[in-house]
Amino acid sequence: MYIDPHVHMVSRTTDDYQRMALAGCVAITEPAFWAGYDRSSPQGFFDYFRQLTDFEPKRAAQYGIRHHTWLCINPKEAEDPVFAREVIALIPQFLKCESVLGIGEIGLNKNSRNELEILDAHLALAAEHNLMVLVHTPHLEDKLKGTILIMDAIRNHARLDPGRVLIDHVEEHTVRHVLDRGFWAGMTLYPDTKVTPQRAVDIFEMHGTERIWINSAGDWGQSDPLAVPKAQVEMKSRGHSLESVKKVSFDNPLAFLSQSGKFRIA
Amino acid sequence: MPGTPPPLSPRAVVDRYFLEHRAKMLDLASFFDRVQRAHGEGADDFRVKALEACAVVLLDGKPERARRMLELLSDLTTTPINHAPTKGATGACAANLLMNQNPKAQA
Ligand SMILES: [Zn+2]
């Protein structure tokens, strides 16, 4: 049994839901994401938010998987702050939906001033509504710098408790920074970028299993919706206890997400 | 936060992963060969130089090689840029190679 707490199912087929269910997936959370191209209007986001809050939960339910979501405009589309603020203004009307857990995945992409401005606008919305936050950290050479800038930006909002914020896509050079500041950390299992299942298990061995989870971040790019069960196999086959395997792939996401008051596994 | 060491002995780790990483090492060698055999522009590409710098870390015998390599491949500036020139990332940072030695990349 496992939870995949970060997966973009709008980009995946129904066959993937079936395979995930067969591998033991009982619940997922899907952060709002970049479509691979810039949406041309706020209305495009309104329709995307309807898909996330209405259509996907039904598709997942066919396989006994509970679907939850996080809403935002992705940092890749934050270079036009006026447009981004129009999208942010659409979010409050969706907050009453039973499957909306909070704001995400917000963060930075190229660590620009406009991205920081829009990150701050999202954080203000989360603080105002006492919402949980799921953070995307930048890619590759931009990750270390972006992770520090994001954590500093969050600290400017005294009402945001780091224990209710998860900083995702950590790697060996960022995991310690994130955990030492009291945030939760997420590891994304990708074939080439981010971490492989082997490196994720190495990171557990080096940094422990408190306040940390694993996810597939399956999306429209090269990714693997079965990455979490593959990491479970890697961990078990190295001789780690079933208890530790369950902790990182089920207990930890359950503990973090349950703080929303809306997360369900059945 | 305490971690737990791998429940495997060094021998068991090698038995389990050696062939996979032997293949990755050969992939890396043939990648450098392929760049060298190719003609035209880009022979001094900063990304190749970055991997050469990583190879030094690989062989220095000190712990946390993965963390230190990632730091070598990171933008180590600390202030936001004025405007995002593109959405993508290259995976290496040309400015780092200009530094004689990167103190943050030490064990
Ligand atoms: Zn994502």
Number of strands of chain A: 8
CATH class of chain A: Alpha Beta
Counting DSSP H or I runs of 4 or more residues, the number of helices of chain A is: 9
- How is the main sheet of chain A built? 8 strands, parallel
- Tell me the name of the CATH homologous superfamily of chain A: Metal-dependent hydrolases
Percent range of helical residues of chain A: 40-55%
The structure class of chain B reads: mainly alpha
**Termini separation of chain A:** 12 Å
Overall shape of chain B: extended
Low-pLDDT runs of chain B: none
Number of strands of chain B: 0
For the CA atoms, what is the radius of gyration of chain B?
17 Å
Overall average residue pLDDT of chain B: 89
Structural class of chain A: alpha/beta
The average pLDDT score of chain A comes to: 97
Major β-sheet annotation of chain B: none
Biggest interface, residues from each chain: A-B, 38 and 35 residues
State the helicity of chain B in percent bands: 40-55%
Poorly predicted regions of chain A are none
Outline the secondary-structure elements:
The complex is a heterodimer of chains A (266) and B (107).
Chain A: E1 2-4, H1 14-22, E2 25-31, H2 42-61, E3 66-71, H3 81-88, E4 100-107, H4 113-129, E5 132-136, H5 143-155, E6 165-167, H6 175-180, E7 184-188, H7 197-207, E8 212-215, H8 227-237, H9 242-258
Helix pairs in contact in A: 2-3, 3-4, 4-5, 7-8, 8-9
Chain B: H1 10-37, H2 46-58, H3 65-72, H4 94-98
Helix pairs in contact in B: 2-3
The structure holds zinc ion.
Zinc ion (ZN) is lined by residues 6, 8, 31, 33, 105, 136, 217 of chain A.
